[in-house]
Specification:
The complex is a heterodimer of chains A (675) and B (336). Chain A is α+β, with helices and mostly antiparallel strands. Chain A contains 19 helices and 33 strands. With 336 residues, chain B is α+β, with helices and mostly antiparallel strands. The chains are: A alpha+beta (675), B alpha+beta (336). At the A-B interface, α6, α9, α11, α12 and β20 of A face β1, α5, β2, β5 and β6 of B.
C-alpha cells in the first residue's frame, strides 16, 4: 500500500527523516517496500488489516516514535429530509454481514474531483474516476473501510437486501465482466436485481454515471471468511475484498460513512439526508483483557517498565487501567480481529519495544529422557548411503514427488496403484510417485539431451502407495554409460550389471546384512532376464537390472540403462549390529584352485553352496576369481580356502576334503573339472 | 718439481669444476691429451740429467695416475647422475584409473550442516510423515479451516482427503503429543506447496523445523539460540537481526535476518538492496498450539523456528534459479 506522507502527517506530527521512520516501521512489523520524500510504500502482515489505511500506519508511527495520534473532527451537515423515506435495508444473514450502514445524498453533481484529491489518489496508486467514486476511495484509504456508492434512482423498490446469491446466478460487475455466482456468495440486491457482489465489486446496473443525481453510500462489515471465499471463487481480488477479508473496523463503518458523506456534500453540492440506516444484530463492545506484568517477563525474558507499557498501548489506541501487578486493557475497535488474548497484547508491547532489546540467552535442555535413537540411526545410515553412492561415482539427484500419467505409462507403472492428487498443479504432477525410477529416468534424459552420455545418479526419498504402508523411504540409482575415469576397457560382458550388483552388496554391508538372495527378475520394467529381485529372509526388498529396451526407447537413450531400487526402511528394520570377531585364526590356511566347465543353467550360488556343504567346517572361504565364456561353454575358477581352528592342516587332510568337494560338484551339478 | 706440485693442485681444482661432457673434454685435452701437460712433462724428461730422471719420472707417473683416476671417478659420477635424468620416459599424465567420485546433493549438504549444528547444541532429531491430515498441518497449529490465514499455504490435497504437508510444523504437534517438556527438537524434511515452478518457487522443497519447550523458555532464549546457530552457519562476524512478523502458530513472531553475505551488508540484488537476508521464521509457540496437545500454556512456554533449505543454499552459493536443484543437471551437481 502506498501512503502519501503529507496525508500521514494529518494524523501524526513527526519531523524524523523518512529513512528513520521507515527503518522503525520495519523493526516493528510493517515492511517498507520503498519510500521517497512524498510517498512511503508498505507491505502489511496478514493479521493487520487495520494497517491497510492511512490512519492505521499513522497510528503505528505514533507508537514507534511516541508522538500523539491526532483525531479529526467530521463536519457533516444534514438537511431536514429523513433518509427513511428514500430507502430501507434488510440484512438476511447477520453472520455474513454483522453491520450494514447507508446514507443518501441527493442532488449531487457528478464531475471531476478537485486536484488535491486526485493527487492523493494517484500517489496512492488509485485512478481518479469522478468525485463521488473518488471520495469513497479516499475514505477507504483513510479508514481502511471500503465504501460503495449506488445510483439511488437505479435501485428498484427503494430497497436494499443483503443475502446469499442463487446458485448459478449471473451478474455483470463494474469491470464489464459477466460473473457466475454460487449460493455461498453474499450479494446486495434491490427489489428486482442484484446490484453488487458484497465486499468485492458493484454491478454495472447501478453504477454512478454522469447523469446520476441521487446516491446511496454503503458502509458495511462483511464476514472476512465469506469475502475471502467469494474473492477466491471468482478469482477477483479488489481493494475492497483485501480489506474485508482481513476484517474492518466495526466503529469506522460509521465514521468513514460520515466522512465520505460530508466530503460528497461539500465537493459535489449534494444534500445529505438526515440520519443514516444502521442495521446490526448487536452493538459492538470493545474487548477487555487482563495483562499480568510478570507474564511479560515470562514470555520475553526481560522486564519492560510499566510506564513504557502504558505509553505503547495508549499510542496504539488501547486504553489502560493500571493496577499494582496487572493492567486492564481495552482493545480498540480496529484491533478487535487480532487482539483477543493476553499474549496478543504482549506481542504489541514486544514489537513496539523492539526485539533488539531482548537478551541473548541459551538454555541447554537435558534430553536424556528423549529417545531419538531411531531417527539418529536413520540419519546416520542415510548419510553413509549418500557417501557410498558418491564414492561409487553417482551424483545425488532430487526429483519431484509427483508424477504424471504419461510418465507412468512410459515407465510401465500402473497409474491405479498411485495416490491421486485431487487438485494437481499441472498434468505432469497428478499422482504421488510409487518409485524413484521415473524421476531418475527423466533426469537422465535431461542430461542426455544436453550431450552428457555418462550418467550415474541416485536419490533417497519417499515413495507412496495406496495400500499398506502409505509412505516409505527408498534408495534408487540409474546408470547410463560409465563412471570410470581413464581408459575404459570395452566389451566386458555384463560389466555394468555386476557393477550395480557390487554397489548393492556394498549397500547391504552398510546395514551389516549378509544373507541377501538374488533371483532372476521377471519385472516388465527389466529387459528380459537381465535383472534380479533382491530378497532378505524371504521378503522382497528391491530389484535391479537393465531397463527394458522399450522403456529406454521412450527416453531416447543410446546405451543400456541400469537401475536399482531398494527399500531403505526395510534395510533399517533388518539391519543387525555388527558382530566383531576378535578370535582371529591361529593356524595357516591352505588354498586350492579349481576350474570347471559348468552345464547351462547352473549358478554360482549352487556351486558355492555345494562347496560349503561338502567341505564342512574346514571351508573358510570360496572366491570366484575367473569367469570365461566361449565356444558355448562357461568356465568358472575358484580359490577355496581351507583352515582348521584347532591345528595346522596336513596335505592329506586337505586333499581328502577337496576331493570330496570336487566329486560332489561333478556328481551333483554335473560340472566338468578342468585339469 | 714446483711444476708438478702446481699441475697437481690445478688439476684437482679443475676436476671439481667439470659439469658436462664438454668441460670434461677440455680438461682431458689440457692434462691428459697427447699435447697435454702430463705429456709435456714426460717429454721434458729426456732433457733431465740421468740421476734425476728416475725420481722425476716416478713423480710424473704418480701424478698421471692420480689425475686419470680422479678424472675417471668424476666422469663416472657425472654419468650416473645424468643417467638418472635420462630415466626411461613414463607418461604419468595419463588419467588415473578407477571410479571418478560422485557428489551428494547440495541440499543434503546444507541440511546436514544445519542439523549438525543443532545436534551439537543438544537438540534431538524427529521426523514426520509427508502425507498429513488437515488437523496436524493446520488446525492444531492454530490455523482454523476456512480461515483466510490458510491462504498463506497453497496446499495439495489427496483423493482420500489428506494433504501433502505444507511445512514441517506438523512434526511439532506429533512430537509434543508423544513427549513431555522440557525438550529441544529439530525436524528436517520435504514440504509441498501448490506453487508453479519459477525461479524462486518450487512445488517441492526442504525445510528444517525446530522447537524448544520448557517452563522457563523465553523469547530471549529464542534470540540467543538462533543467534548462536546463525553465527555458526554463516560466520561469527555476521550481524543478525530479529524483526516482528506474523505466523498463526507463534506469538510474538519474528523474522530473522542475517547481514547479506554476498555484499557484506552494502546492498545488492540478492538482498534487494536492504543489506539483509531473510533466513528464518520464528516465534514463541502460540498458547492455542500448546492447548491442542494438552500442555498447560500457563506453565509451559517455548519457541519454534523454521527455514527453507533451498533458499539458504541459493544465497550461500549465489544460485539464482531454484529449479536447478531439481533439474539434476550433472554439470551443476558435480560442482558440490
Amino acid at each position: 500500500m502506498k501512503l502519501p506522507i503529507d496525508w500521514l502527517k494529518e494524523f501524526v506530527d513527526f519531523d524524523e527523516p523518512i529513512k528513520k521512520v521507515s527503518d522503525s516501521l520495519l523493526m516493528s512489523g510493517t515492511e517498507v517496500v520503498s519510500f521517497d520524500d512524498k510517498v512511503i510504500e508498505v507491505d502489511i502482515l496478514p493479521n493487520r488489516g487495520d494497517c491497510l489505511s492511512v490512519r492505521g500506519i499513522a497510528r503505528e508511527i505514533s507508537a514507534i516514535l511516541d508522538k500523539k495520534f491526532k483525531e479529526q473532527k467530521i463536519n457533516l451537515v444534514e438537511v431536514d429530509e429523513e433518509i427513511s423515506g428514500s430507502v430501507s435495508v434488510e440484512v438476511q444473514d447477520f453472520g455474513l454481514c454483522p453491520r450494514y450502514m447507508a446514507r443518501v445524498i441527493k442532488d449531487v453533481k457528478i464531475g471531476e474531483s478537485p486536484s488535491w484529491l486526485q493527487q492523493r489518489l494517484l500517489s496512492s496508486g488509485i485512478r481518479p474516476i469522478n468525485n463521488v467514486v473518488d471520495i469513497t476511495n479516499y475514505c477507504m484509504l483513510e479508514f481502511g473501510q471500503p465504501l460503495h456508492a449506488f445510483d439511488l434512482d437505479l435501485i428498484d423498490g427503494k430497497k436494499i437486501i443483503v443475502s446469499k446469491a442463487k446458485n448459478g446466478e449471473k451478474v455483470v460487475t463494474l469491470d464489464g465482466i459477466e460473473r457466475i455466482l454460487s449460493n455461498e456468495d453474499l450479494i446486495i440486491s434491490d427489489a428486482k436485481k442484484t446490484v453488487a457482489i458484497a465486499g468485492v465489486m458493484g454491478c454495472l446496473n447501478s453504477e454512478i454515471n454522469p447523469s446520476t443525481k441521487n446516491i446511496l453510500i454503503e458502509s458495511a462489515f462483511f464476514s472476512p471468511v465469506s469475502i475471502n471465499k467469494t474473492s477466491k471463487n471468482l478469482k477477483l481480488r479488489t481493494e475492497a475484498s483485501i480489506r474485508f477479508e482481513r476484517g474492518v473496523d466495526f466503529e469506522a463503518v460509521k465514521t468513514a460513512l460520515d466522512k465520505a458523506s460530508s466530503l460528497i456534500s461539500q465537493l459535489s453540492g449534494g444534500k445529505c439526508l438526515k440520519g443514516s440506516i444502521d442495521v446490526k444484530k448487536t452493538d459492538f463492545k470493545r474487548g477487555k483483557i487482563i495483562l499480568r506484568i510478570d507474564r511479560i517477563k515470562k514470555i520475553l525474558g526481560i522486564e519492560v517498565p510499566k510506564l513504557k507499557i502504558v505509553k505503547i498501548l495508549e499510542n496504539l489506541g488501547f486504553s489502560v487501567k493500571s493496577n499494582s501487578d496487572k493492567f486492564e486493557v481495552e482493545v480498540p475497535s480496529w484491533r478487535s480481529g487480532d487482539i483477543e488474548r493476553e499474549i496478543d497484547v504482549i506481542e504489541e508491547i514486544a514489537r513496539v519495544n523492539g526485539y533488539d532489546v531482548l537478551n541473548d540467552t541459551f538454555t541447554f535442555i537435558k534430553s536424556e529422557d528423549l529417545d531419538d535413537k531411531d531417527s539418529i540411526n536413520r540419519l546416520k545410515k542415510e548419510r553413509q548411503l549418500r557417501h557410498l553412492m558418491a564414492c561409487c561415482g553417482f551424483y545425488e539427484a532430487k526429483t519431484f514427488s509427483m508424477v504424471g500419467s504419461s510418465l507412468m505409462a512410459k515407465g510401465h507403472i500402473d497409474e491405479n496403484s498411485a495416490i491421486k492428487i485431487s487438485n494437481p498443479l499441472i498434468e505432469e504432477m497428478t499422482h504421488l510417485r510409487t518409485t524413484l525410477i521415473l524421476g531418475l529416468l527423466e533426469s537422465a534424459k535431461y542430461n542426455f539431451d544436453r550431450g552428457i552420455n555418462d550418467i550415474a545418479i541416485f536419490e533417497i526419498g519417499k515413495v507412496f502407495t495406496k495400500s499398506g504402508a502409505k509412505e516409505k523411504n527408498v534408495i534408487a540409482g540409474l546408470l547410463h554409460g560409465s563412471v570410470q575415469r581413464g581408459i575404459i576397457e570395452k566389451d566386458k560382458i555384463n560389466e555394468d550389471f555386476y557393477f550395480i550388483k557390487g554397489i548393492i552388496e556394498n549397500i547391504f554391508s552398510i546395514f551389516s546384512i549378509c544373507c541377501v538372495d538374488f533371483y532372476q527378475s521377471s519385472d516388465s520394467k527389466i529387459e528380459n532376464g537381465l535383472g534380479a529381485e533382491i530378497f532378505l529372509s524371504g521378503e522382497k526388498v528391491g530389484f535391479f537390472g537393465m531397463v527394458n529396451k522399450e522403456i529406454s526407447s521412450h527416453f531416447d537413450f543410446i546405451k543400456p540403462v541400469y537401475i536399482f531400487e531398494i527399500d531403505f526402511d526395510k534395510l533399517l528394520d533388518l539391519s543387525t549390529s555388527k558382530e566383531i570377531n576378535t578370535d582371529l585364526p591361529k593356524y595357516p590356511a591352505v588354498k586350492r584352485d579349481v576350474a570347471m566347465f559348468i552345464p547351462f543353467g547352473v549358478s554360482h550360488r549352487e556351486i558355492t553352496e555345494t562347496i560349503f556343504s561338502e567341505g564342512g567346517a574346514l571351508v573358510e572361504d570360496v572366491l570366484l576369481f575367473d569367469r570365461y565364456e566361449g565356444k558355448g561353454k562357461t568356465s568358472l575358477a575358484y580359490t577355496i580356502t581351507y583352515r582348521s581352528k584347532e591345528k595346522t592342516l596336513t596335505d592329506e587332510e586337505v586333499n581328502f576334503v577337496h576331493e570330496k568337494v570336487l566329486s560332489a560338484l561333478q556328481n551333483n551339478l554335473n560340472v566338468e573339472i578342468r585339469k | 718439481m714446483e711444476d708438478i706440485k702446481k699441475i697437481e693442485q690445478d688439476a684437482l681444482n679443475e676436476i671439481n669444476l667439470i659439469k658436462d661432457t664438454k668441460s670434461a673434454e677440455v680438461f682431458k685435452n689440457k692434462y691428459l691429451g697427447r699435447k697435454g701437460l702430463i705429456a709435456s712433462l714426460f717429454s721434458g724428461l729426456a732433457k733431465l740429467p740421468q740421476e734425476e730422471k728416475k725420481s722425476f719420472g716416478y713423480q710424473v707417473n704418480q701424478l698421471k695416475n692420480l689425475i686419470e683416476k680422479s678424472f675417471k671417478d668424476k666422469i663416472g659420477s657425472l654419468e650416473s647422475s645424468s643417467s638418472k635424468n635420462a630415466q626411461k620416459f613414463f607418461d604419468v599424465t595419463i588419467p588415473g584409473k578407477g571410479i571418478r567420485i560422485g557428489t551428494t546433493h547440495i541440499i543434503s549438504q546444507v541440511m546436514d550442516e544445519f542439523i549438525d549444528i543443532f545436534l551439537s547444541m543438544g537438540f534431538v532429531l524427529a521426523e514426520g510423515p509427508e502425507i498429513e491430515t488437515d488437523y496436524y498441518n493446520f488446525e492444531a497449529l492454530n490455523i482454523p479451516s476456512h480461515h483466510p490465514s490458510k491462504d498463506m499455504w497453497s496446499t495439495f490435497y489427496l483423493e482420500d482427503g489428506k494433504l501433502l504437508r505444507t511445512h514441517t510444523s506438523p512434526v511439532q504437534i506429533r512430537f509434543m503429543e508423544k513427549n513431555k517438556p522440557p525438550f529441544a527438537v529439530i525436524a528436517p524434511g520435504k514440504v509441498f506447496r501448490k506453487d508453479a515452478p519459477d525461479i524462486t518457487h518450487l512445488p517441492v522443497f526442504h525445510q528444517v523445523e525446530g522447537l524448544v519447550v520448557g517452563e522457563d523458555i523465553t523469547m530471549s532464549d529464542l534470540k540467543g539460540t538462533l543467534t548462536i546457530f546463525l553465527k555458526k552457519m554463516f560466520g561469527k562476524k555476521r550481524k543478525v537481526r530479529f524483526r516482528p512478523s506474523y505466523f498463526p502458530f507463534t506469538e510474538p513472531s519474528a523474522e530473522v535476518d542475517v547481514e547479506c553475505f554476498i555484499c557484506n551488508g552494502k546492498g545488492c540484488r540478492s538482498c534487494k538492496n536492504t543489506g539483509w537476508l531473510e533466513i528464518l521464521g520464528s516465534g514463541m509457540v502460540d498458547p492455542n498450539v500448546f492447548s491442542a496437545v494438552g500442555y498447560d500454556a500457563e506453565k509451559i512456554t517455548g519457541f519454534a523456528f523454521g527455514a527453507g533449505i533451498e533458499r539458504i543454499a541459493m544465497l550461500k552459493y549465489g544460485i539464482s534459479d531454484i529449479r536447478m536443484f531439481f533439474e539434476n543437471d550433472i554439470r551443476f551437481l558435480r560442482q558440490f
